[in-house]
Amino acid sequence: MSENSKTGPVYVIDDDPDVRDSLRVRLETAGYDVRLYETASAFLKEYEPGVGCLILDLHLTDISGLELQRLLKERSETLPVIMVTAYPELAKAVEAMKLGAFDFIEKPFDDQVLLAGIEQALVRSERDREMAAMRDEAVARLESLTARERDVLVRVFSGASSRSIAKTLGISQRTVEVHRANIMRKVNVQNLAELLQLASRAGLHWERPLPPSRH
């Protein structure tokens, strides 16, 4: 098992103390930082976003596993969830996967299956965090642009030529070129390829409707 696979804690939420104790022994023996919770509420009070993964029992005494999944999704949390249950329920398994569960495992656990799932979940968690950091950095750089510069950049990102942008916005092609130069200076890129990569890393911020044109 690689060192990177052990990055971040493994959270366990299960209302059965025997299951929690058993998982603690198994996972700590495998070298993981294990954090145990009896309820989803207790987990939410302590959880701080970061690299890690969550072993989540489907049936809990306060908030169900599916309800907690929905809540984490609403908060845009990327914590990989391994849903577990002693009562196989196909409909709920399907729902968990639709909500983004990384895996769905039935009790009693097969140690090798569980450990392999945790390793893969932590690798994905670290990758997701790195991508989120890159996106946030890209968005922060693009926030320095004026509304008109954003008008121009969104259209450059969509593949429009300077001539086409000038016609759409009702400005001269020379003015479009000046805006493009100002954009590249402000966001500190050297060429168009770097500018497009930066806009791409900003992700969903560029999927919203285009800003209104100003004539």
How does this model look, in words?
This protein has a 5-stranded parallel beta sheet with strand order 2-1-3-4-5, sandwiched between helices. Helices cover 53% and strands 10% of the residues. By secondary structure, it is α/β, with parallel strands linked by helices. Helix 6 crosses helix 8 and helix 7 (162-169) crosses helix 8 (173-186). The longest helix has 32 residues, at 111-142. It has helices at 17-29, 40-46, 65-74, 90-98, 111-142, 147-157, 162-169, 173-186, 192-201, and strands at residues 10-13, 34-37, 53-57, 81-85, 103-106. Residues 1-5 and 204-215 have low confidence and may be disordered. It is elongated, with a radius of gyration of 23 Å. It folds into 2 domains: 4-130, Rossmann fold, CATH 3.40.50.2300; 143-206, Winged helix-like DNA-binding domain superfamily/Winged helix DNA-binding domain (Arc Repressor Mutant, subunit A).
Give a quick summary of the entry.
With 215 residues, the protein is α/β, with parallel strands linked by helices. The protein has helices at 17-29, 40-46, 65-74, 90-98, 111-142, 147-157, 162-169, 173-186, 192-201; strands at residues 10-13, 34-37, 53-57, 81-85, 103-106.
